[in-house]
Write a structure and sequence with these properties.
single chain; alpha+beta; 8-stranded mixed beta sheet; 6-stranded mixed beta sheet; 31 helices; 36% helix; globular
Length: 1193
């Protein structure tokens, strides 16, 4: 049987051909209003090909693929963490119950013990409390706790290191079990944890008594606890000090691991954003002049450790604490800077990385002093320990010990020979092949007597030997010496020295020196050889550097070579003029665009050079550096070693055997406050990248001294990967702004013409008309942002910024306290670098591409579901005989064959095996059952829906968060969209229900809800997690009914299928536009840092749309039919009608007639589902449904 013919579109319903005067090139078109021009563009987009849309989608796909590739493959730090081994045991402290805290039923407290070492369950050392982060486990304490136990007991019983220190003690590690709460998404959870831990600290301190103290009864009991916080646990630690139940001075040392201090990683919750703002203000104001003498944080030290680019969860830029407290109380350091770690660490490995946990455990053991009530050393002593353990030693704030030593630790006596004093260029001493003399040898390098003109010069010493103060197996020692004219040495005088080295002969002239060992100031560097690949390979160099002005009391640098056999070891030392080792490379805007900058270091061939890369300060831009290889590479003592570094935060990266390296750093970053000294611009005083280069200063191959060429270029592909982690929240905020602009276009056309065009048509019009303007505005905003951001003064002084001592005449000027200026960098993309002005257009284009992809995916899914359900219903209709008959209806002179039901058709399709039939049956049941569940609320009558809404609001107000209600109404609205697309909706044409324009409007509302869905899901995840932990406890926040009621009312009103009435008054149109403009502007300027408010803006917009619906019910001044649009005479402007898009949901421009009876509907369904018509043609017929131009269906 052939399929019945498809309905033919009458000629009168076809759109007339567009007159030539309406073409965009005509003068008539240029005289039309912007709304009318937009209507023409939209109609042309529908009728023509979507070439703009396709271009944006292709561009978005390419850029996103490049960004993903770059983030995974380019500019990624090497992974060098070694695994840790431990024998953990956890003792739950059950006595910490509801009598001590109101959260005892939800959280738990444990004491960690390392098996075979800690045999007692009672605390007897110095208390340390570990705080897990977002979804973290209390068992993450085991790595650091186990290492601290091994270091203490191994040193105590094997070497006796801590036995001679009366203030040393073991550490008692406590840890809190938060049931892996999501503190990053829910502020109330964070506050609950902070309150619980304050109660826990009070309880922990009460556990200590004189009988439990391992150091005896005379040792004071602990009065404070050391805190270690991982990720959001660091924020919990800082929040604890701001709560009412905090015991003063109970915390004085905080170490945070990958903690976002300045910017919350997820801004979907108002409480989280508010907590960050309040605690940051509290910490800043605590160090202000207003609280001098009564600062509650005066003795608190805060050390922030971060992992760098390997951390794909928390941007390392957010871990900076320089805007929160002065450098006397804390600093931020990267793991790639910490000696003997020298590797990037990801977000989870920061607690188990073997090299890092050794450094942390060693630092904790050295800050302990049980003789103090706080159980720790003073703030100055603690900061000195932390700087020596975590910083490279090359920072200016790290004090040198040997030049400032009051006494001397070594007495050196050598034979006076002409060769003992170096004559190599007078300022350089290079020793190759240590031990070549087969006996101990001493070499002296004279220090100039007059250092007044060379006080800024440096003494640089590099060796591949280990330098230790008490190294028993050490074969090389380096000293700062001054001559001694004392000829006799009694025993009392010799006992004043730790070491006496006598290389003199009885019958020869002897030189005597009193010396200070340089090992106390040595810096370890990763070894750089021809076989080196990474800094964390294992071998090390020893390096010492002094300012010549600090060596005024010394006369010689002495090198003692004690090797008895020749080795490949080396020592190179030289005095370098400040003008000979400092260079400046300026990368201006032109150089950035060209992407290339080259500098040649002179042929003087100093062993140490420092290059300042001016203009390289933004962490979003990555670079490539090429170092030209030396012609004498095969004979060099060591391969070139490069250190890239920033001083604030303390970030260093080492590149051994450097040739081609990738430079990525964390300088000026998005949304991180910028700081500057008074009198200078932020752009000039941003942290500038610097390079330090060590290379062999000798030329053993016979070649003349050669220049060293450095070439720096921008790594465009590597820079794309920097955007991924820093602008994750922008994937919700910026697309929502695009949706707002598209809907603004739709409402403009709807208010002017009475036709609500499809979202896809409006997107195409937006790309051609508004997107270029948006890109231009965003680029201009970034370029002008340095002049737009307000500035303020930090409330505290940083001693590093204060002027040095000055003369009395200048004391009033130079000794005036200096305060840093801070600028909040929180608008739009959080950047103020004009060189990145193209970033705004790039992200807006990507956001547009994401909107396009999401829209068409949603459209395909909705059409597929609607079509599938139509076919299933048509099959049921064909298979069931009409009431009162025994056979299906037949047309004259032909028999209609029985149509199989949906289950029969699916089963027949999978009839090859019984197993496939079973799966087909399950899939069919699942599909039909899921749809019935989704549409449950929609099929209720008005009274039942009101009862359902009331019940939903009731449980929101008492038990569940409003995000749960949003998910429910989101599902209900999906059902409404599907229902508007189903073929059965033809029968509603005469009653103005589920019209094509309603379908367009419903899908636009769905797009709006889709982009605020990511904002609501995290809170719903927190609620589900709390439900699994303790379901009887109501959710602690987000029960405001006004936050969800307008959306519920709008979605409930749209279930009826009635189109939003058209605004005919200017005031109502202005309200709609103002709300959409507010959504657009806020999404662009504040949406990334305040994403939670986007939901509330959409909620306010939904309230207005519901009010418009109410005006329709009350007979207000609104219009639904197109009869009341146009020229006001009941007819539509013919010119306007020609330009309107004649489609629904993005189809072709043909107008189809609508079947008006049930029999014709069944015939159409049979033709579309039971014949050989393709699915594509069926989609086309489904989409070709629009109201006729006289206002009737």
């Amino acid at each position: 049987m052939s399929a019945p013919p498809s309905p033919v579109t009458p000629a009168s319903a076809r759109p007339p051909k567009l007159p030539a005067r309406l073409l965009p090139s005509s003068k008539y078109f240029r005289r039309r209003s912007s709304v009318q021009q937009l209507q023409y563009v939209a109609s042309s987009s529908v009728a023509g090909t979507y070439y703009r849309t396709f271009s944006v989608v292709v561009f978005t796909a390419i850029v996103l693929c490049l960004m993903l590739y770059s983030s995974l493959r380019r500019q990624v730090d090497s992974k060098g963490c070694n695994p840790a081994f431990y024998s953990p045991s956890y003792a739950k402290i059950k006595s910490f119950d509801t009598d001590h805290t109101r959260f005892a039923s939800k959280y738990s407290l444990f004491l960690y013990r390392e098996q075979t070492l800690d045999n007692t369950r009672e605390p007897r050392g110095v208390p340390v409390l570990f705080i897990p982060g977002n979804a973290g486990s209390y068992k993450q304490v085991r790595e650091i706790a186990a290492e601290a136990a091994h270091q203490y007991y191994d040193a105590l019983f094997a070497k006796g290191t801590f036995r001679d220190d009366p203030g040393s003690s073991s550490l008692d590690f406590f840890t809190a079990d938060f049931n892996e709460d999501f503190t990053a998404f829910h502020g109330h959870t964070l506050l609950d944890q902070a309150e619980y831990l304050n109660d826990a600290i009070a309880f922990i301190l009460s556990l200590y008594s004189p009988s439990r103290n391992e150091n005896g009864d005379d040792t004071p009991l602990p009065r404070s606890v050391i805190l270690i916080g991982h990720s959001m646990g660091g924020i919990v630690a800082r929040t604890m000090l701001t709560l009412p139940n905090y015991r003063p001075d109970s915390v004085n040392t905080i170490i945070t691991l990958s903690t976002p201090h300045v910017v919350p990683p997820a801004t979907f919750d108002w409480d989280i954003v508010n907590i960050f703002e309040k605690i940051n203000q509290y910490w800043r104001k605590s160090y202000s002049d207003d609280l001098v003498g009564k600062n509650p944080l005066a003795s608190v030290s805060l050390i922030s450790i971060t992992g760098g680019k390997l951390d794909a969860i928390v941007p390392s830029d957010f871990t900076s604490v320089s805007s929160l407290l002065p450098s006397t109380n804390g600093f931020t350091v990267f793991t790639s800077s910490i000696p003997n770690v020298w590797t990037g660490v990801d977000h989870l490995a920061v607690v188990w990385c073997n090299q890092l946990r050794r450094a942390i455990a060693q630092a904790l053991l050295h800050v302990v002093d049980t003789r103090e009530p706080t159980q720790t050393k003073s703030l100055e002593a603690r900061m000195e320990v932390f700087r020596s353990q975590f910083l490279t030693g090359l920072e200016p704030e790290v004090a040198k010990k040997a030049p400032l030593a009051l006494g001397h630790d070594t007495l050196l006596r050598v034979q006076d020979t002409p060769s003992i004093i170096s004559k190599q260029r007078q300022k350089r001493l290079t020793l190759r092949g240590l031990g070549s003399y087969r006996r101990p040898q001493v070499h002296l390098l004279p220090i100039p007597a007059d250092l007044s003109e060379s006080k800024d010069d440096i003494l640089s010493i590099l060796t591949d030997q280990t330098l230790e103060l008490d190294g028993k197996d050490q074969r090389v020692d380096i000293f700062l010496c001054q001559s001694s004219h004392r000829n006799t040495f009694d025993s009392d005088y010799l006992h004043t020295f730790n070491n006496v080295l006598d290389f003199s002969k009885p019958d020869s002239k002897t030189l005597t020196f009193v010396c200070s060992n340089m090992a106390q100031d040595k810096v370890v560097l990763p070894a750089s050889t021809r076989d080196s690949k990474f800094a964390h390979d294992g071998s090390v160099f020893s390096y010492v550097q002094y300012r010549m002005g600090d060596l005024f009391k010394y006369q010689y640098v002495a090198v003692v070579d004690s090797y008895a056999d020749e080795t490949s070891g080396f020592v190179t030392m030289e005095m370098i003029d400040s003008t000979a080792y400092k260079y400046d490379m300026h990368l201006d805007l032109k150089s950035s665009l060209s992407g290339d900058l080259t500098i040649s270091l002179p042929s003087g061939r100093a062993g140490f050079s420092e290059v300042t890369l001016s203009g390289l300060s933004n962490s979003l831009i990555s670079y490539k550096l090429d170092l030209a290889p030396s012609k004498c590479a095969d004979s060099e003592m060591f391969a070139p070693l490069i250190r890239q570094f920033l001083s604030d935060p303390h970030e260093s990266k080492y590149f051994p055997n450097a040739r081609k390296i990738q430079i990525g750093f964390h300088g000026a970053a998005p949304f991180v406050p910028l700081t500057s000294l008074p009198g200078g611009s932020f752009s000039e005083q941003q942290q500038t990248l610097k390079l330090q280069i060590w290379r062999d200063p000798t030329t053993a191959c016979g070649e003349r001294d050669e220049q060293v060429t450095l070439r720096v270029s921008v790594d465009m592909l590597g820079s794309l990967g920097n955007l991924v982690i820093r602008y994750r929240t922008a994937t919700a905020a910026l697309p929502l702004a695009i949706v707002g602009m598209v809907m603004l276009m739709q409402f403009n056309i709807y208010d002017a013409s009475g036709t609500f065009i499809t979202f896809g048509a409006a997107l195409e019009a937006f790309i051609g008309k508004a997107l270029p303007i948006l890109c231009l505005v965003s680029a201009s905003f970034i370029a002008l942002s340095p002049h737009l951001f307000p500035t303020s003064t930090l409330p505290f002084m940083d001693p590093a910024d204060q002027p040095a001592g000055s003369s009395d005449a200048d004391a009033s000027i130079n000794d005036r306290p200096v305060y840093r200026i801070i600028r909040d960098n929180d608008l739009f993309l959080g950047i103020s670098d004009p060189r990145l002005c193209l970033l705004g257009p790039l992200l807006f284009t990507l956001a547009t591409g994401l909107c396009i992809v999401v829209y068409y995916v949603v459209a395909i899914v909705l059409l597929f579901i609607a079509t599938t359900l139509d076919c299933l219903d048509a099959m049921k209709l064909q298979a069931s005989p009409p009431a009162g008959t025994d056979s299906p209806p037949t047309a004259p002179s032909q028999t209609i064959p029985r149509v199989l039901t949906s289950r029969e058709r699916v089963g027949k399709f999978f009839s090859s095996t019984l197993l496939l039939r079973f799966f087909a049956f399950l899939l069919t049941q699942l599909f039909v059952g899921l749809y019935n569940f989704v549409s449950m609320l929609a099929v209720f009558s008005g009274g039942k829906r009101l009862i359902t809404i009331f019940t939903l609001l009731l449980i929101v107000s008492a038990y569940v968060p409003f995000q749960f209600a949003f998910i429910v109404v989101f599902i209900v609205h999906i059902n409404t969209c599907i229902k508007s697309l189903r073929t059965q909706s033809y029968q509603y044409g005469l009653s103005e229900r589920f019209s094509p324009m309603f379908s367009n409007f419903a899908v636009s509302i769905l797009m709006l809800m889709i982009w605020i869905l990511p904002i609501n899901i995290p809170l719903l995840v927190v609620w589900i997690h709390n439900l699994s932990v303790k379901w009887t406890t109501p959710f602690s926040s987000h029960h405001n009914l006004l936050s969800i009621m307008p959306i519920i009312l709008l979605v409930e009103n749209m279930i009826s299928g009635k189109m939003l009435p058209r605004n005919t008054q200017v005031k109502q149109q202005i309200v709609t536009k103002i709300l959409l403009v507010y959504l657009i502007v806020y999404s662009c300027l504040h949406g990334i840092l305040n994403a939670y408010w986007l939901h509330h803006i959409v909620n306010i917009f939904a309230l207005w749309l519901f009010i418009v619906y109410l005006e329709l019910l009350s007979g207000g001044n609104y219009s639904y039919n197109s009869e009341r649009s146009g020229n006001g005479s009941g007819e539509v402007d013919s010119e306007l009608a020609m330009k309107l898009p004649q489609t629904s949901f993005g189809s072709s421009s043909v107008i189809a007639t609508v079947p008006t009876s049930a029999s014709s509907t069944a015939t159409t369904l049979q033709a579309s589902c039971g014949s050989s018509t393709t699915v594509t043609s069926y989609f086309d017929r489904k989409l070709e449904r629009v109201p006729s131009m006289n206002g009737k269906q």
